[in-house]
Amino acid sequence: KPHLSAALGRIQPSATLAMTARVTRLKAEGVDVIGLSAGEPDFDTPDFVKEAAIAAIRAGQTKYTLVDGTVALKEAIRGKFRRDNGLDYGLDQITVNVGGKHTLFNALVATVDAGDEVVIPAPYWVSYPDIVAFAGGTPVFIAASAAQHYKITPAQLDQAITPKTRWVIFNSPSNPSGAAYSPEELDAIGEVIRRHPHVMVMCDDMYEHVWYADFAFSTLAQRCPDLIDRILTVNGCSKAYAMTGWRIGFAGGPAWLIKAIGKLQSQSTSNPCSIAQAAATAALGGPQQFLDDRNAAFRKRRDMVVAMLNDAPGLNCPVPDGAFYVYPDASGCIGKKTPSGHVIDSDEALIDYFLDSARVAAVHGGAFGLSPAFRVSYATSEAVLKEACVRIQQACAALS
Ligand code: PLP
Q1: Where is the signal peptide (predicted)?
Q2: Are residues 277 and 139 located together in one domain of the fold?
Q3: Range 138-144, long-range pairs (CB < 8 A, 24+ positions)
């Protein structure tokens, strides 16, 4: 009889990846379905990055590297933290891992024991609670509703922290809501963290460069330099440089934690792909101008999608300041009936209805811990987005 570990039993497969797989299956069957579930930019990896990878292969950079990253890549990351965030991490305070998810996984598995609590604001990125549970910890959620623009208040954070809290996970701009914290809001979060010296903060800045707010992006360690030894600043190449397939994530943090992450990685993946590391070195050190052009394109789509979804009966879509997702509140659809007589009693039922009747695939809010809502990724062409939003409008209008 097959045996699976208790740790494996504590986790679920990723809901976003599951929906994307469902879309792929439907498309293979010839169904005209529009997938808005994937969490990756539709842009291509920049050519100068690809060229760097090809050059690395030709130069024979095809062997093991140092476990937690080449010196060249760590230098590029150090330069990135200085340039973008005003942070000066030493090379022994930087780790490179197989994607940002792996960075978070390593950090949590290296530090969380059974009984430890990890505070996670909801709506949250789907993997946080599962990784915490895998590590044996207990996720503690804070609900940040649409009315509060999907951002937690300092008072909510203060209440969620207990003597058992090991980490607070903080993600701005957020997947799935796109909510981004202002410098002043970060200061107020830092003030709470300051009062609880046993708590560490996992600051997930993965969407730093997908940004539309009229204030500049900042990260917690930059706003609160006195807390820098209690913060792991997590970032990666996936979203900014359209490098999801290359699998490079990284973090800056206290040397003891960086060392622990390296120890764990040395007994699991060893180094991230040497060629991907060369590509990441080029991405972080190369021209950054194209980020603005991509943001301008994303922003146009965001504006269209927000406007069209707000025109759909029953939906209320706040305007996100970053990332490439919107997270409409669907309270106005719950309790209504579909033309075939089914009652929409949850956001999951709503998403099934969208898929079955409108052939549009989004991800239900339950997967992100805040219902009723759903996530739409607008990392796809304007024409496709427009058609998808028309279909959602029609599906919502058909509810009674
Ligand atoms: N953090 C957030 C908030 C994300 O949305 C993602 C990817 O979807 C990641 C981290 C991990 O990115 P990757 O492992 O692809 O580098």
Answers
A1: none
A2: yes
A3: 138/164, 140/165, 141/369, 143/369, 143/370, 144/177, 144/179, 144/370
Number of domains observed in the structure of the chain: 2
Q: Is residue 170 part of a domain?
A: yes
Cβ–ligand 1 contact at 206 (below 6 Å): yes
Ligand 1 close to Cβ of residue 125 (< 6 A) = yes
Q: Is the CB of 171 under 6 A from ligand 1?
A: yes
**In terms of residue numbers, what domain contains 163?**
63-285
Q: What is the pLDDT of residues 245-284, one digit of tens each?
A: 999 999 999 999 999 999 999 999 999 999 999 999 999 9
Q: Which ligand 1 atom is the nearest neighbour of the CA of 171?
A: 3
pLDDT band at 371 (very low <50, low <70, confident <90, very high): very high
Residue 13 has pLDDT above 90, yes or no: no
Atom nearest to 103 CA in ligand 1? 14
- Residues 104 and 283: their CA atoms lie apart, in Å, by 21
**175/324 Cα distance (integer angstroms):** 8
Residues 135 and 170 in one domain: yes
Mutation to probe ligand 1, out of 175, 234, 277 (largest number of atoms < 8 A from CB): 175
Residues 93 and 230 reside in one and the same domain: yes
266 within domain boundaries: yes
Tokens read off for 139: 């996720």
Complex ipTM, two decimals?
0.99
The domain boundary residue, chosen from 285, 318, 335: 285
Distances from the Cα of 86 to the Cα of 219, 223, 233, 313, 398, angstroms: 9, 10, 12, 45, 51
Distance from residue 101's CA to the centre of ligand 1 (Å): 6
Across the chain, which distance is largest between two alpha carbons, in Å? 64
The answer to which of 14-18, 140-144, 336-340 has the lowest mean pLDDT is 14-18
Could you tell me the distance, in angstroms and rounded to a whole number, from the CA of residue 148 to the centre of ligand 1? 24
Of 285, 314, 347, at which residue does a domain stop? 285
- Reported as a pLDDT band with limits 50, 70 and 90, residue 146 is very high
The enclosing domain of 366 has a CATH number of: 3.90.1150.10
Query: Where residue 238 sits, what CATH number does that domain have?
Result: 3.40.640.10
